[in-house]
């Protein structure tokens, strides 16, 4: 099941979404027919699939409905005689791009889940890294560089108030956060290149986020990061 957000609705709903042809997508859901277009979104609401032009009801089916993005509608009585056409078989290119989108969603989830940082007193705190968090932490780096003390920030525990961190601790937090983001961005970019190089559908399907990327597809920055992790 995937998270789907119809453009005329603020509430995310669960649905099984499957591409049936170049212009038709099937949506299996308990929700009523909706032709406003939609996004596929992660648990935090960030979109990873944009389908804003699927605004025509192609036909209703058991448990859901089909939408088209070219204005086409189902005309069962006008179909030529013969067997029903088989399910749409996506091309290798489509499989690759679907896998890239899945891996990008996994990248964003991994980044936003955040990191645990050991502070100077030996305690560990967890910090989320949403887009807003990343932007704010980049701004705090300048305060660290300026030598400021008592820098306010908050960890991921919503039950805790914002509090002050020492310059040394904030240095650790911002450094760890930026390293975490850089790792995932670099890893994903190399993984994307690897996915698009594959010539076999089964190889594409077997790709998972976090897998070892063959050395031939590792960038120099990724190789350096891997070496540092193993040191």
Walk me through this protein's architecture:
Helix 1 packs antiparallel against helix 3 and helix 2 crosses helix 3. This protein has a seven-stranded antiparallel sheet, covered by helices on one side. Strands 8-9 form a two-stranded antiparallel sheet. The protein has five helices and eleven strands, in the order E-E-E-E-E-E-E-H-E-E-H-E-E-H-H-H. The radius of gyration is 23 Å and the shape is flat. The chain has 231 residues and is α+β, with helices and mostly antiparallel strands.
N to C succession of SSEs: EEEEEEEHEEHEEHHH
Shape call: flat
Helix percentage: 25-40%
Low-confidence stretches: none
Strand order of the largest sheet: 5-4-1-2-3-7-6
Radius of gyration: 23 Å
Q: How far apart are the first and last residues' alpha carbons, in Å? A: 40 Å
Strand content: 15-25%
Mean pLDDT: 89
The biggest beta sheet reads: 7 strands, antiparallel
Structural class: alpha+beta
How many beta strands in the DSSP annotation? 11
Q: How many H/I helical runs? A: 5
């Amino acid at each position: 099941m995937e998270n789907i957000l119809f453009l005329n609705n603020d509430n995310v709903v669960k649905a099984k979404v499957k591409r049936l042809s170049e212009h038709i997508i099937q949506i299996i859901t308990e929700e009523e027919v909706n032709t406003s277009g939609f996004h596929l979104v992660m648990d935090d609401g960030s979109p990873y699939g944009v389908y804003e032009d699927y605004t025509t009801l192609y036909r209703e089916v058991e448990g859901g409905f089909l939408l088209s993005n070219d204005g086409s509608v189902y005309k069962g009585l006008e179909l030529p005689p013969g067997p029903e056409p088989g399910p749409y078989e996506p091309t290798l290119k489509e499989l690759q791009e679907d896998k890239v989108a899945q891996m990008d969603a996994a990248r964003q989830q991994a980044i936003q889940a955040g990191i645990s940082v050991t502070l100077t007193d030996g305690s560990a705190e967890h910090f989320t890294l949403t887009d807003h968090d990343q932007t704010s932490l980049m701004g705090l780096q300048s305060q660290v560089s300026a030598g400021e003390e008592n820098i306010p920030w908050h960890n991921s525990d919503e039950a805790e108030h914002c509090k002050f961190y020492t310059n040394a601790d904030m240095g650790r937090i911002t450094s760890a956060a930026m390293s975490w983001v850089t790792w995932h961005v670099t890893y994903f970019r190399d993984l994307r290149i690897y996915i698009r190089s594959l010539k076999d559908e089964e190889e594409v399907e077997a790709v998972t986020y976090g897998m070892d990327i063959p050395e031939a597809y590792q960038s120099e920055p990724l190789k350096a990061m891997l070496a540092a992790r193993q040191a």
